[in-house]
């Protein structure tokens, strides 16, 4: 693996936990050619919650997948925790995702036959690692699921299931967590719980997290909001409130 310093565009603030530099991702050829990412540069600050917003088709999921090593870029560079992902083979990418990245998706993706606790420790079990017991306890308390650990997913509410999914992502202490519409399937109250959890994980425990969302209220939990449009970065807002985010979305002329 090539080790390089993660670069950051900002001269102040925390160092970048991840960065993309002039990334292009082209799908298809000829008439069906789509530039899903068209020269994106972005630094994800360490220990912060970053939201990525933008209209449907603007490249949010593609960006997240490329940053997480789930997809490769056509050109440009992706650096994660000092490792240049560009040019890594599938085995190395698999190892990197397993060891250094946590995922929270809209569909909770819990294993239905396992209990909440078994789901939370599954990634460490698969990797053959013993989970850090103290940390696991803290994560379980943070997600407020201590009295539900023996329940199977079908015995949990949507919000509880997503909190299990968050705990699963946090338990392995990954360098970075990627959350794709983590509150998309949740009612407002459950969504707030999950967002508060992700924000606390960043602020109290230094967990770097990138979250894709369409929802200005959800994005207002973030320390930094990055707007995409047509595969490009169309703006950034630091410490935004929901109204400012909504204004920005309106002025971009394209509802997310
Ligand atoms: N596997 C693929 N093959 C071809 N085109 C693709 C593929 N994946 C994405 N695209 C195209 O790339 C562009 C960006 O898609 P992407 O899913 O990243 O957008 P998004 O902002 O996440 O959208 P949404 O909010 O609707 O999920 C779209 O035009 C999409 O049709």
From TrEMBL:
<dbReference type="InterPro" id="IPR015854">
    <property type="entry name" value="ABC_transpr_LolD-like"/>
</dbReference>
<dbReference type="InterPro" id="IPR003593">
    <property type="entry name" value="AAA+_ATPase"/>
</dbReference>
<dbReference type="InterPro" id="IPR017911">
    <property type="entry name" value="MacB-like_ATP-bd"/>
</dbReference>
<keyword id="KW-0547">Nucleotide-binding</keyword>
<keyword id="KW-0813">Transport</keyword>
<feature type="domain" description="ABC transporter">
    <location>
        <begin position="18"/>
        <end position="255"/>
    </location>
</feature>
<protein>
    <submittedName>
        <fullName>ABC transporter ATP-binding protein</fullName>
    </submittedName>
</protein>
<keyword id="KW-0067">ATP-binding</keyword>
<dbReference type="Pfam" id="PF00005">
    <property type="entry name" value="ABC_tran"/>
</dbReference>
<dbReference type="GO" id="GO:0005524">
    <property type="term" value="F:ATP binding"/>
</dbReference>
<dbReference type="InterPro" id="IPR027417">
    <property type="entry name" value="P-loop_NTPase"/>
</dbReference>
<dbReference type="InterPro" id="IPR003439">
    <property type="entry name" value="ABC_transporter-like_ATP-bd"/>
</dbReference>
